[in-house]
User: Which sequence fits this backbone?
């Protein structure tokens, strides 16, 4: 045998030398949930180790992440049911919990990168990402709401706005509104290929944002499809996106790879709540070793993602797995 691939695996130093993909704190984005009130920190039962924070505690949490070198945060609000309506007006009203949170984080930690989520579902009495009329999700009418929401986030200080709604044309629509208002420097991380998935369950528990009726299949993509993701990516590129995201992550590594191979924008992967819950449950039961976490995160790098949104971000750094 002339070729003995095992020779390149014979020592830790050589294994390290030939390692193709690396993961650093710079690749990680930590999603954080916000609630009304003071001194609140309540654990989400389906996401052990992940909490909803009131703004005061959110600031403490972000400070401790920054000390670890974790610098990017994606914020999500849990909105009281009484504030929700058909048109998600709470998503752009002045002085909301969410806008205050963005402002406070940027005021206290200007160096932190704040990513905001644009979609109607946390604020919608229907629990959908768009306006519902006779059981249908209206596309163009929804864009108007998304535009107001994005503009409010930009005014509050968002560094990157991430539309997660899957309405057609939203990237271009939002890009226009931001530019017209002087926010040419605010980035757009598009949820390019977001699939109608069962893996969002724990997130919807965290926010109380599950659809009241029906499912999201008329706007989120079918998990049987991959080529559609290329159409979505092409549109996002043309409409002015700065990042292309694939969501969920683990069951869609092929989609991450395909966008990476076909487009030159940076690719983000969202390692979603259900993926987190699965791994945590298995580790909690002693069925998997904790090293499954790093193996999972590295798979996103191998597939071609540079940015990884993951609830594991902080623990992976705290435990010294990622530097
Ligand atoms: C809402 C949104 C969802 C997630 C991020 N933004 C849920 C959904 O589309 O129903 C899911 C994130 C996760 O599961 O971790 N637009």
Assistant:
């Amino acid at each position: 045998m002339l070729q003995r691939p095992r020779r390149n695996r014979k020592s830790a130093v050589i294994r390290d030398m030939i390692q193709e993909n690396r993961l650093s704190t710079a690749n990680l984005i930590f999603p954080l949930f916000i609630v009304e009130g003071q001194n609140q920190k309540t654990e989400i039962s389906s996401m052990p180790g992940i909490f909803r924070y009131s703004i005061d505690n959110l600031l403490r949490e972000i400070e401790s992440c920054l000390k670890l070198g974790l610098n990017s945060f994606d914020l999500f609000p849990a909105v009281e049911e009484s504030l929700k309506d058909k048109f998600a007006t709470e998503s752009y009203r002045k002085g909301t919990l969410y806008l205050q949170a963005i402002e406070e984080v940027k005021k206290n930690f200007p160096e932190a990168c704040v990513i905001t989520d644009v979609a109607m579902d946390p604020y919608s009495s229907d629990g959908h990402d768009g306006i519902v009329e006779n059981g249908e999700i209206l596309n163009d009418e929804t864009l108007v709401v998304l535009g107001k929401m994005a503009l409010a986030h930009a005014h509050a200080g968002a560094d990157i706005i991430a539309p997660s709604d899957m309405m057609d044309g939203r990237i271009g629509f939002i890009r226009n509104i931001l530019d017209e208002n002087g926010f040419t420097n605010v980035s757009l991380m598009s949820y390019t290929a977001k699939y109608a998935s069962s893996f969002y369950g724990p997130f919807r528990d965290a926010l109380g944002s599950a659809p009241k009726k029906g499912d999201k299949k008329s706007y989120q993509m079918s998990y049987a499809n991959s080529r559609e993701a290329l159409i979505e990516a092409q549109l996002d590129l043309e409409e002015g996106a700065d990042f292309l995201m694939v969501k969920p992550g683990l069951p869609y590594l092929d989609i991450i790879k395909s966008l990476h191979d076909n487009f030159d924008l940076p690719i983000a992967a969202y390692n979603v709540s259900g993926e987190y819950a699965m791994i945590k449950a298995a580790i909690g039961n002693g069925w998997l070793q904790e090293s499954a976490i790093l193996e999972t995160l590295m798979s996103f790098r191998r597939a071609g993602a540079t940015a990884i949104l993951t609830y594991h971000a902080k623990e992976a750094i705290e435990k010294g797995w990622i530097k």
The radius of gyration is 20 Å. The domain at 24-318 is CATH 3.20.20.70 (TIM Barrel). Residues 117, 119, 121, 129, 164-165, 200, 203-204, 272-273 surround PBG (CB under 6 Å). The chain has eleven helices and twelve strands.
